[in-house]
Design goal:
Order of helices and strands: EEHEHHHHH
Structural class: mainly alpha
Shape: elongated
Low-confidence stretches: 208-228
Largest sheet: 3 strands, antiparallel
Strand order of the largest sheet: 2-1-3
Number of helices: 6
Strand content: 5-15%
Radius of gyration: 42 Å
Length: 228
């Protein structure tokens, strides 16, 4: 089902302009792009706003697509590689537009509001001459965090965190294995000790029996002696 967005009017720099509203809360970079272009006067919704004051997502994407093509005509006096690169980038952007109705996948660094890993998502803004910024900045007074993060991107930090957790889990598993082995060895040692003690007792019993038997023999001999 095609999403529909309410269109409203506002005053901007002394003139009436249209802007598009979200239908649900959450990120919607495509609407942000549309509103920037509307405020600049570089996009018009004429002919695509329905009587009830709504615009469909497909029509909105089509208008932005047209704007991309208008502002990025084929390069003149460019090499074959440059021309193919531009065509490929535009194709990738067109494929990405539908996903920009629900979010934007970017990889930021934390020292500058415009520091992003360059991806197709960033290319959308570049080709429309829109500056993309973020708000994830480090506190320069937090020297320890600054030292740990350095110039790493968000994705690089996540990878480091996953590796660190993997090391912790491995160490925990190793300690558990050592504990089980030690417990098993203690059990075997205890069993060996019990067996040894039982063996010693078995060896001692015949000697005691022999001694007891000899004593009884001597006593009987004394009783059987004749009395003068």
């Amino acid at each position: 089902m095609d999403e529909a967005y309410a269109v409203k009017q506002t005053q901007f720099l002394g003139k009436s302009v249209s802007y598009v509203c979200q239908n649900l809360n959450g990120p919607c970079p495509l609407l942000a792009i549309a509103n920037v272009l509307l405020l600049r006067g570089q996009l018009t919704l004429e002919g695509i706003v329905e009587p009830r004051g709504y615009v469909n997502a497909s029509n909105l994407m089509h208008m932005i697509h047209c704007r991309l093509l208008d502002t990025n005509p084929p390069l003149k006096n460019a090499s074959e590689l440059q021309r193919l690169t531009q065509e490929k980038t535009l194709m990738d952007i067109v494929e990405l537009l539908p996903s920009m109705l629900v979010g934007l996948d970017v990889n930021v660094r934390f020292h500058n509001i415009t520091d992003f890993e360059y991806t197709v998502a960033c290319a959308v803004f570049d080709m429309l001459d829109i500056v993309l910024v973020h708000g994830w900045l480090l506190d320069e007074q937090d020297e320890l965090t600054m030292k740990v993060i350095g110039n790493k991107s968000y994705n690089e930090l996540i990878e480091r965190l996953v590796d660190y957790r993997g090391v912790l889990m491995t160490e925990k598993a190793s300690k558990k294995e050592v504990s089980v082995v030690e417990k098993h060895e203690d059990t075997e040692l205890s069993s060996d000790t019990e067996v040894t003690q039982l063996g010693d007792e078995e060896e001692t019993k015949p000697e005691a029996a022999s001694t007891s038997s000899g004593s009884r023999g001597n006593s009987n001999d004394k009783i059987s002696e004749p009395i003068d």
